[in-house]
Amino acid sequence: MNEYFNQTDDLIYIDAGIEGVFLPADGRPQDQWTNDEIERHVESGYSGQIVVGLKKEGRVILPPLNEVYPINAQDAIPPSHNCGTEPYQPQRMIANEQAAMHIATVMNELFASNTIHVHVSNFSARTGGCRPIFVDEVLDLESLSNKDQEIS
Q1: β-bridge pairing 47-56 and 59-62
Q2: Contact by Cβ (8 Å): 80, 71
Q3: What is the reported pTM?
Q4: How far apart are CA 131 and CA 80, in angstroms?
Q5: Containing H/E element for 13?
Q6: From CA 103, how far away is CA 80, in angstroms rounded?
């Protein structure tokens, strides 16, 4: 998708990422896990984010996922992996539902008022908390960056 974003002149690209649930690599049954492994399992799988990328007339207005959270081809789960195929690491349904709700919020705003207010939402499905990065913050930083370049 990042490659497609870079090759396209006009696009809104919304992507979500969900933390996987920790499982010991050796596949032991849960009754053989250490206390540390149990704790890591219980604490994992709740966080995630959505990123809204926007490109208009060839100009990147809102950076896409790979510019906000660069994708590493060496990750345990390769960037080309399709979440619909056999999972490398399970995810909690509540985290996926939270990501879908954040995407639905962005889509609702887009269809209702033709606007985008949130560039990135980092969330915890465990606590219900969310830390959005608003479009205004991104555009202000970009404006400052452009002014600095003009001054130099």
Answers
A1: antiparallel
A2: no
A3: 0.80
A4: 27
A5: strand 11-18
A6: 21
